[in-house]
Write a structure and sequence with these properties.
This protein has about 350 residues and is α/β, with parallel strands linked by helices. The chain is built from nine helices and 16 strands.
Amino acid sequence: MKKTVLVTAIGSFAGESVIAGCKREGFRVVGCDIYPAEWVANSMDTDVFYQAPYAADTDKYRSFLKRVCKEEQVGFLIPLTDAEIDVLQTWRLEPASDYGDLGATVCISGEEAITRCRDKELAAALLQDRGVCLTIPGQRLSEIDMESLEELDYPLIVKPRDGRSSQGLQIVESPEQMAFVVKSCGNRADCYLVQPRIEGTVVTVDVVRDPESGVCACLPRRELLRTLNGCGTSVYVFRDEKLERQCREIAAVLDIRGCVNMEFIEQGSNRYFLECNPRFSGGAPFSHMAGYDLTRNHLGCFMGQKPQPVQLSESMYAARRYGEYKMKTDSINTERGRGIDEEKT
């Protein structure tokens, strides 16, 4: 019997390449998304599809995962969005948690690693203390002196410490705007970081690490065009020994397992660490296109296998384009993939 993997949020940018990677490794793929199968083109590539509840509805989402894992005999679970990883992280950290009832290997980094990745302030402090890379100085919004707003060096970036996909990020260009931001955040001001705005090009590095062996593979790209929520659509894939060495050191400090993506802002000869997202990047297909199978090596990190080395013979430009598909419901295997309104009680 084929091993089964559950891939969540398959309508996301990484969905198609992750599903294809799982199939190449001989897995039976169960996919889910918050939208019905007919709205998600990638559902045609799965063996079974389920419509999932929103991860924000924590109890319903947990029940959904347990039900699907049981009914489909799921061996591995690959979540593709931060929201889902946050739910899984909170779940496994709870006292007397029933997280183990999933009965599947959840392919994400360990508890401490996720905590470090999801707190931008904590991650930057750890890396700064060890002198691993350049980080962007900052302070919490709650620490801003309201009597000295005129003295701040604008423009500034205000962003959630646990933000994702640029959600909640604001560019503040004046004392008046900063006063408004502080007031609007109210008692949540401690949850926001204030940093100088650094102009430059975003560099994303797909990183796969096996903590037992310490083997870590890295493949960088410059994001030449990006969506508003930070997904590259035109990129330049390249190799850089210094940057890759830094990423390996960052992955060791954060204690990463499997595939993550790290982001830097490149200004001249300097690269400033922005964040480490503990999941596949939206631009993961570019690394697959460049010849590095992120999915295979990610799964391998949870199956006792070392990541393969990156072999990129030459740098390359790559761009994403969108296609249209006629969705035929009879071609989508939803016989066992009930929608969220048809869950068992």
